Amino acid sequence: MLKVRALECRRGASLLMSDFNMSLEAGQLIHLQGANGTGKTSLLRIISGLSTQETGKVLWNDVDIRTAREDYSSNLIYIGHQPAIKDDLTVLENLTVSLKLNGVNVDIKRLGEALEVVGLARRKNLPARVLSQGQRRRLSLARLWLDQRPLWILDEPFNALDVQANKLLEERLDQHLVSSGMCILTSHHTPNIDKKLLTEVSLGL
Amino acid sequence: MKIAGILQALLWRDIKLAMRRQSDVVATLFFFVVAVSLFPLGIGSAPSLMHAIGPGVIWVAALLSSMLSLNRLFSSDYADGTLEQLLLVPMPLTLILAIKIFAHWIVAGLPLVILAPILGLQFDMGAKDIGILVLSLILGTPLLSLIGAIGAALILGMRGGGVLLAILVLPLYIPVLIFGAGAVTASVNGISPEGALSLIAAMLTLGVVFAPFAAAVALRISLE
What we know:
The structure holds 2 protein chains of 2 kinds.
Chain A: E1 2-11, E2 14-24, E3 29-33, H1 40-48, E4 55-60, E5 63-64, H2 69-73, E6 76-79, H3 91-100, H4 108-117, H5 133-141, E7 151-155, H6 163-178, E8 182-186, E9 198-202
Chain B: H1 2-20, H2 22-43, H3 47-68, H4 72-80, H5 82-87, H6 93-122, H7 127-154, H8 161-188, H9 194-222
Helix pairs in contact in B: 1-6, 2-3, 2-6, 3-6, 3-7, 3-8, 6-7, 6-9, 7-8, 7-9, 8-9
């Protein structure tokens, strides 16, 4: 379970949030909302442990994520604004490396299946530089079908995706939540999933 | 083992990426060869002069070409977001950077070591002196990558980082240069190079232990 307690976050001179509290339980999805510049990405980076807050705590199972960084990281999938794809590697190599770096060894058959799901199977041996923005996004999301971790932190996962891929991701989110996963994401549209599982949190002072 | 698997995957990735961009690697090597070859053209090629300047020239050129490739160490990973993912790998960042630095040495330092004997011949060095040159570079070039990584981590995301990197890193390279070139000069003059070589080896040991840690701290600061 993830808890955010009395968080204060500044970027430069401007105060983005103060005394911000939030908790995320198994089987719950938090949809962060807020206008541009209200600190959605900053909050996600703090929660994932990439940036530090001014004051306040982020707790994973009641342990501060700063003191148990590696244990926390192994429970987490963070997919940021940038798709984290190396242009010079092929689609398949990109996926394999990103999984191996997280200690996940998957056989080639399952990799192929996941690429099939996200619709990149026919391009698996092409260098990633030829992919379109939407395809890059699909490739970075492919990890969600292969790596079983309880907490997903997704920054604008629906960006650049077409209608069909949108639906695909929503289905995968649903599955993840039903098997008591957790997810926190930012998005400009409300994900079309079971309303009982969805919590809306608005940012902006 | 899980940790070994992760580190292996990272090493494979970095070397593969360098191989897919061979032009970068080749350009650095070309710079090394050309920079060394310019000196005899500029100041004449009397054998006594060659003996005197050879070790220093080869070492300075190795130092500069190793620095040329430092920018690549983190900047492309930073630009495409993979560096963020590396920070989230469930493993100490120090270890990850140690592997990245090792990969950098394989693609940017090791080729210099391999090319050095040919350049040594250009300066009329004997077989024994060339041996010492290679040995001093084997010990010295990893140190250049290690020190350089701290600088590269600090300047990440800054505008005009390249020049700043040179200003940061070159002064720290001076001890490596003094003892590296010193070992070869000693050998050329018939003195034992052992002392200088031992000192570089000692610095390398210190560097291997502390530089990845320092680079990890610098990287976290840069990415805040």
